[in-house]
Amino acid sequence: MTEQLPTAAAYDAVAVRYAEFARNELDALVLDRALLAAFAELVRTDGAGPVAELGCGPGRVTAHLRDLGLDVFGVDVSPVMIDLAREAYRDLRFEVGSMEALELADDALHGVVSWYSVIHAAPQDVPAYFAEFRRVLAPGGHLLLAFFESEGEPVTAFDHQVTTAYRWPIDDLADLARAAGFAEVGRMLREPREGERHRRGHLLLRGATEQR
Description:
Elements: H1 4-22, H2 30-45, E1 51-54, H3 60-67, E2 72-76, H4 79-88, E3 93-96, E4 109-115, H5 126-136, E5 137-148, E6 156-158, E7 165-167, H6 170-179, E8 182-190, E9 200-207
Helix pairs in contact: 1-4
């Protein structure tokens, strides 16, 4: 959890401004919404069990997933972000917690969304995050990742507006997920819109169907 502590402090410091900036962000992101809808449909088709958004921030994606018919809750390392999410979406559950040590039983979830949340993990720590996602997902559960893509470069640190983050080659991140026990269902690359600096990467993955 050592990597999470400075990230929590950094997001605590900007939480109110960040929540205001991100509140209506999805409204203009047609492709992003389509991918979230595809994820929700896959989860519902497979039985509609509980879903966690890990690194939920102020909760706007968690609420969107709720509107898509999922039984969803949010987890974030920033206590201030969680307070804002609870205030904005009183009907939803939000918890302070670390993505690398979730207080969840094995196979507890049918879906996990990591929407720009592993971007702050040091590259050597990402496999541990994926292993934790795999642990809490039931066999056949789905994982949706959103991240900044490196556009032909290796893993690259950049000056994210909150705290240091990393841009990833989509193939490298897919390989790490595969090593953790996930199979790729699909991927999307989105070029930066006006006001965005970097290409966006998305991976839709499914855990192995056999019991561990």
